[in-house]
User: Fold this.
Amino acid sequence: MAGSYILNGYFETDKGTVSVEGKLYIGEKQGIETDEHVSGLIIREKEITKMNIGNMPEIVTIKEKKDILSRLFVSTNIDPDTKERDGIFVVYTWSKNLNPGDKLEVTIKTNYILPLIVVLIAAIAVYFVRKRTETDVEVIKSVNHMRTKGGEFALKVRIKVRAKKAVEKVSLIDRIPAILKLYEHHLGTIKPRIDVSNRRMQWDIGSMGAGEERSVEYIVYSKVGIVGKFSLPEALAVFEHTGFVHEVESNKVFFLSEQVKTDDYSI
Assistant:
């Protein structure tokens, strides 16, 4: 330690032992040696050491900043003196008064195994959900209100079938709501097979190449006025791909009878 010290010296002479007293002054010297070592990737360990290499007591401080997510997986060999928020970060602080030769050692371990497992499970779940919900054929159903000369309530229904991959034996099935009737004079170029008793129509489209699109349309009407909101049944596409039979439903279609009329037609 720096300071003044009293010295007692003893000398052997031919007249015996002689003692001599004196003073020794050691000048002040300050010095803090810092050493950092980082290891690991998934379990990341950071060791920070501060050592007093001077001859005077000194207060040393170690600070470490972690974001609010990674801090959940942090452990330390000694508890920090303070934890302070700094935006999206948390600042850990350790302080200690070191005498000459003393040191402060802090080990900060961040274990990324748990978040890595969570991310991996989430990625696998997303992959399987996408694979399960991803279809080789997309069916889009839309409806427009028809303005007729006779004043009947009428709707034009259009269904698009889009193949994302090459598929075979494609059939499109749709049902007519009980409150509506089919206008059989407008069935488009691809004629459906009509099951009157079950109010069902089926179009046999056949094979489709990747990116190919087909569409069908028909008109339904009612002599009775319809007010309010009602939904049309989803259309169903049945097809074969790689030797297996698949089914895909269209989107749901809702209609408000007060919506703007878009097409003119004579029924």
Summary: Residues 167 and 208 are 5 Å apart (CA to CA).
